[in-house]
């Protein structure tokens, strides 16, 4: 297996707070510093959310501009914006910063229970986000929490809102979504359109086992404090970079070279 693996570091998220781990970054400077550490560890892309200085989630354009400018000033990482934001945000809030033209942005193609809350993505909302991504020529990453979200992505291809080949990210293990089993991952990989690329983001204890299986299957991997706080049971990761380092070690064992950001552009179909 010689296909380079694209490692994405999900370094912020919208749910994890300092009371959960002291290592989660909040400010643009902290986020950019963690992004640099992840690049040095072997990541090719960072997936980012915005936060206020107190940790409150935000999708405001100025915060995202500061994050994007600082990351691009210090690294060659690809930068992927979240359009999920935080539960309860409007579509307008979630897509406010897209005119900054990140390298990629997420597109969740369905509604999912999210613990005790609901991450709402009605079809009209999905169409609106997909349309904005297409108008700005931003490559989407299709976020899949359950099987039907693949079918919705196929529907959007038929409607002309998405263009093949697509890149999917399977987010497995969210309470209320599809479970974080290897069996589920393998089923999803076999369900996407031919020619698609894919990565997996396992939640909590599922993160590293699913990353290992993705490496074996020729897929790509997302890790980071957004999805998992621990390097092993009871031991907090000191940053997303430590989780990247673990995947780099696993990639070496499976013979997968690491994709540079430039190689990741080619793999994911991202124009310079």
Enumerate how many helices there are, as a single number.
Answer: 9
Query: What is the CATH topology assignment?
Result: TIM Barrel
- Helical proportion? 25-40%
Query: Per the principal axes of the C-alpha atoms, what is the gross shape?
Result: globular
Q: What proportion strand? A: 15-25%
| Overall strand count | 14
Q: Round the Cα radius of gyration to an integer and report it.
A: 17 Å
- pLDDT averaged over residues: 97
Reported for the largest beta sheet, the result is: 8 strands, parallel, barrel
Based on the coordinates given, report the CATH architecture.
Answer: Alpha-Beta Barrel
CATH superfamily: Aldolase class I
The parts where pLDDT drops under 50 for at least 5 residues are none
Order of helices and strands: EHEEEHEHEEEHEHEHEHEEEHH
Given the helix and strand composition, which structural class is it? alpha/beta
Q: Report the top-level CATH class.
A: Alpha Beta
Amino-to-carboxy terminus distance: 27 Å
Counting structural domains, the number is 1
- Spatially, the strands of the biggest sheet line up as 1-2-5-6-9-10-11-12
Characterize the structure shown.
The protein is α/β, with parallel strands linked by helices and 272 residues long. The protein has nine helices and 14 strands. The chain has one domain: TIM Barrel. An eight-stranded parallel β-barrel has the order 1-2-5-6-9-10-11-12, surrounded by eight helices. Strand 9, helix 5 (148-158) and strand 10 form a beta-alpha-beta unit. The two termini are 27 Å apart. The model has no long low-confidence stretch (mean pLDDT 97).
């Amino acid at each position: 297996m010689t296909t380079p693996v694209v490692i994405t570091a999900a370094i912020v998220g919208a749910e994890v707070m300092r009371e959960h781990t002291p290592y989660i970054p909040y400010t643009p400077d902290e986020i950019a510093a963690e992004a640099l550490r992840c690049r040095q560890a072997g990541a090719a892309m960072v997936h980012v959310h915005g936060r206020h200085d107190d940790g409150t989630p935000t999708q405001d354009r100025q915060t995202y501009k500061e994050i994007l400018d600082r990351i691009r000033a210090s690294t060659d990482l690809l930068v992927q914006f979240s359009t999920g934001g935080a539960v309860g945000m409007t579509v307008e809030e979630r897509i406010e910063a897209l005119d900054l033209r990140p390298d990629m942005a997420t597109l969740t193609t369905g509604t999912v229970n999210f613990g005790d809350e609901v991450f709402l993505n009605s079809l009209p909302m999905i169409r609106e986000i997909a349309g904005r991504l297409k108008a700005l020529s931003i490559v989407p990453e299709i976020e899949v929490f359950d099987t039907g979200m693949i079918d919705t992505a196929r529907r959007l291809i038929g409607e002309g809102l998405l263009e093949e080949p697509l890149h999917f990210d399977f987010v497995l293990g969210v309470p209320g979504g599809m479970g974080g089993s290897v069996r589920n991952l393998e089923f999803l990989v076999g369900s996407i359109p031919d020619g698609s690329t894919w990565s997996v983001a396992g939640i909590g204890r599922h993160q590293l086992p699913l990353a290992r299986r993705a490496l074996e299957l020729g897929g790509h991997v997302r890790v980071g404090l957004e999805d998992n706080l621990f390097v092993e049971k009871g031991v907090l990761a000191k940053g997303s970079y430590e989780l990247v380092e673990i995947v780099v070690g696993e990639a070496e064992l499976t013979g997968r070279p690491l994709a540079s950001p430039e190689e990741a552009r080619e793999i994911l179909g991202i124009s310079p």
